[in-house]
Amino acid sequence: MSLTxxxxxxxxxxxxFTLADVVLDEPAPHEAVVRxxxxxxxxxxxxxxxxxLPFPLPGVLGHEGAGVVEAVGSAVTGVAPGDHVVLSxxxxxxxxxxxxxxxxxxxxxxxxxxxxxxxxxxxxxISRDGEPLGGHFFGQSSFAERALVDERSLVKVDPDVPLESxxxxxxxxxxxxxxxxxxxxxxxxxxxxxxxxxxxxxxxVMAAALSPASTIVAVDKVGERLSLARELGATHTVNxxxxxxxxxxxxxxxxxxxxGVVETTGSVAVLRQGVDALGARGTLVxxxxxxxxxxxxxxxxxxxxxxxxxxxxLGDAETQTFIPxxxxxxxxxxxxxxxxxxxxxxxxxxxxxxxxxxxxxxxxVLTF
Length: 368
Hints:
Layout lengths: L2 E8 L6 E8 L6 E10 L2 H7 L9 E2 L4 E8 L11 E4 L8 H4 L9 H7 L10 E3 L2 E3 L12 E5 L3 E3 L15 H13 L6 E5 L3 H11 L5 E6 L2 H9 L4 E4 L5 H8 L5 E6 L4 H10 E9 L13 H4 L4 E4 L7 H13 L9 E5 L3 H9 L5 E5 L1
Parallel strand pairs: 11-12, 11-14, 12-13, 14-15, 15-16, 17-18
Antiparallel strand pairs: 1-2, 1-4, 2-7, 3-5, 3-9, 3-18, 5-6, 6-10, 7-8
Helix pairs in contact: 4-5, 7-8
């Protein structure tokens, strides 16, 4: 049976979010209806809303949802009505990478999550006045009071942890944490540099602080964010507007260079500086996403010292194990995610967007 709910609709590229009544399709066998409690706002949402990606508009975005399951399709076995869930990306579950524990590299990841706007079979999950809207964003489209969610986007979590405190785990936080834990895997005494102190970068700082790395450097141009990075575990900070990155990293590391770098800014110029700041056998993880088609020039001879440049999607996380582990760390106070979050009523989504673009809010979370 279809369900009417209130959602934030983007009518066209560059248009604001507009609250409107939409109709959710009847749950397919592997879908569930989730009553949203909170959902994070991410730069990916803003990029799609601006028309920067070929997602079908008008449509409903949102991909860091958290809520309570209200109904499940006939084939859903992992959750039941009443369960608390964090919503993350979806995947096919059958390709080589999904079966190998790397669903973020699913063979059908792009159409299922970012640009398709439909289920895998081409049917629509959301409509308005009988006309289909772009939906199924990351298998959830959680900018709505209720969401029709793909089973593989659902992660059951501890009901004792407030959902508004863990909604960002679905994308931004697991991306930053996964860059450190799943790719860099810092060895004892290593030096980790994080370029950009936004939500993803600060998540990487917190992850590094829980690792054996002894030197954790946060780089940004905003002094307040650098101060917060110190409080979250950075041992050093660099104001990129005032210091030469390569020289400063060389000084901090005694001339050895960084063992690991997490690039979150999406600037190819910053990426190049990060590669140059690596030491021998160092690894740079590319997290920030510039416009499609962007290229970066690298000194090939500079790579011959064993440097690696690795692209990353969503922390290369297997969500069913990774997200509950992060929830436990939040519960224990060891991952102080609340330091990044600013909450807004759902109706104030456009104010949250403005504050995020202006740098006033690191991680806006909409509450219902």
